[in-house]
Design goal:
Distance between the termini: 60 Å
Strand order of the largest sheet: 1-2-3
Largest sheet: 3 strands, antiparallel
Low-confidence stretches: none
Structural class: alpha+beta
Shape: elongated
Number of strands: 5
């Protein structure tokens, strides 16, 4: 059984792994964060700030909701040819 311990990629291994429960440092080379909401964007920003390459993935809606359409500025509508 592996139990995460603290930050910076340390893991605590149980006695079945022969490590006596001592923290084992692991290197994090790159990260993918699923969900670009407030929490996901914050996690990705913190990882990028410490130099870890990060992929931020989110779904893309097929079309805008009515509320989002109303928020689009007239300038944006003119540049897209819809005004």
């Amino acid at each position: 059984m592996v139990q995460e311990e603290g930050g910076c990629g340390e893991r605590l291994l149980d006695d079945t792994h022969g490590k006596g429960g001592k923290p084992v440092p692991t290197e994090i080379r790159k990260v993918a964060v699923l969900g670009a909401g407030v929490m996901g964007a914050g996690i990705a920003a913190h990882l990028a700030n410490v130099g870890i390459p990060c992929y931020l993935l989110d779904i893309v809606p097929r079309e805008l909701t009515e509320d989002r359409r109303r928020r689009v500025s007239p300038r944006a509508r003119r540049s897209s040819g819809t005004a």
